[in-house]
Amino acid sequence: MSVRPPASGDAARVVRRGLVLSTVALVGVAAVYLLALLYAPIEARQGLAQKIFYVHVPAAWSALLAFSLVGLASALYLWLHDPRLDRFAAASAEVGVAFSAVMLTSGPIWAKPIWGTWWTWDARLTLTLFLFFLFVGYLSLRAAVHDPGERARFSAVVGILGMLLVPFIHLSVYLFRTLHPQPIVLKPSAPSLPPEMLRTLLLSTVVFTLLYLGFVTTRYGLALADEAREDEAHAP
Amino acid sequence: MPRSIRLSLAIAAKDLRAELRSKTALLSALVFAALVLVVFNFARDPTVLAVTDLAPSVLWVTFALAAMVAMNRAFTVERENSAFDGLLLAPVPREALFLGKLLANLVFVGTVELVTLPLFVLFFNMSLWPQLPGVLAVTALATIGFVAVGTIFSAMAVRTRFAELMLPVLLLPFMVPPLIGAVQVTSRLLAERPLSEMWGWLRLLALYDVVFVTLCTLAFTAVVDE
């Protein structure tokens, strides 16, 4: 299948669109911070530490969204061989790693005062940590393969296998936990949220999804620009 | 015997024959496994930690590391004189090619594990006879799954710039479910727990094998064909 090489004008337009989206989303993030601090009430038992919830949960949402879409795009790529799918998967994986870094750093900051420990091998924590490693591996594989076609096929295979690995990691960590009960961690049961908290969280989720879209669009445009530059370099 | 199975066996036989003639990879993998066991022995304070508490983890970490070293070999040997291009030109279905490579890897990794096991018994002063059939069974069950993933990843890794580093980075997350399962079953075997306590883990290991052997066999064509 021959695909028209992307022109650099296209790339600039996509990057611009991505930057506009990201800027809007970043303004939204500032609004979420203000709402979280001024509008949402202070949680009775956790105090101010609970405020991290408005960043942590949406970041986790965006990271999981990013990784699921990598798996989906990988499967579709092996079927359709459309380079756009590969470019999207790469962009989504990179942005997903960034969001999961936010999730994995904001989590312990909250857990230290609330659980009394930075880290615990709870099923969800372990799963997200391995997802992070999986996609760091995915990105380093992409960086280490030179040929674009080969890179796309290899990373699609890793993307698909990774998607199937997730339930296995979840299941084994879950079995591990239930058969070996660990010291009970001080963990508040999910409180029913007051409407102010819920609204802030929902807005934050929308904003983080927008941020994901903005980042992925920007990254996609940059990949286009990269390809256009390489084509120019190889043109006789 | 169906043609594709015959072809897989022929490819596996070719790999093993080549290995038996030089024996370098096998010997290095064995020495490596023995060294890991020795290092572990010094990492443990025998007055604090009972050997049975640590033994299953030591055994499986050693197996995992040795398997990783061993699996790097499968496709690096094909790089010389572009041997792999010749193999791809042969009228062999890609699935049969993958299964042949997988089979050779399994024999190779299995040999390393079989030699490591007595060393482990020796160094850690264990008595393993009553549990031996169980330990061998769970070793086979866990090994099949991660060697399947390792075989397809080593076919990719060999085409990258940092082949020796790329395989562990990609493969270790995939080794987690089989390793957790194998360690759990092994420690229950050593503690002489009833089979019912291991059943969930054994099913998980078997499911992993089925899913990943099938998937890797099907995905292999995407790795080798343009």
Total DSSP E strands of chain A: 0
- Outline the low-pLDDT stretches of chain A: 179-191
Radius of gyration of chain A: 20 Å
**Percentage of residues in DSSP E strands of chain B:** under 5%
Unreliable parts of chain B:
none
Overall structural class of chain A, as computed from helix and strand content, comes to mainly alpha
Please provide the ordered H/E string of secondary-structure elements of chain B.
HHHHHHHHH
Outline the biggest β-sheet of chain B: none
H-E string of chain A? HHHHHH
Q: What does the average pLDDT of chain B come to? A: 89
Number of spatially distinct domains of chain B: 1
Shape of chain B: globular
Give Rg of chain B in angstroms: 18 Å
Which pair has the most extensive contact?
A-B, 31 and 33 residues
How far apart lie the N and C ends of chain B? 30 Å
Number of helices of chain B: 9
Assembly context of the chains: heterodimer
- Helical content of chain B stands at over 70%
Q: Assign an overall shape of chain A.
A: flat
Q: Termini distance of chain A?
A: 22 Å
Any overview of this molecule?
The complex is a heterodimer of chains A (236) and B (226). Chain A contains six helices and no strands. Chain A is an all-alpha fold and 236 residues long. Chain A has a domain at 51-182 and 196-212. The longest helix of chain A has 40 residues, at 195-234. Chain A is flat and about 70 Å long. The model of chain A is unreliable at 179-191 (pLDDT under 50). The longest helix of chain B has 30 residues, at 94-123. Chain B is mostly helical and 226 residues long. Chain B contains nine helices and no strands. Chain B is globular, with a radius of gyration of 18 Å. Chain B has one domain (3-224). The model of chain B has no long low-confidence stretch (mean pLDDT 89). In chain B, helix 2 runs antiparallel to helix 3 and helix 3 runs antiparallel to helix 6. The chains are: A mainly alpha (236), B mainly alpha (226).
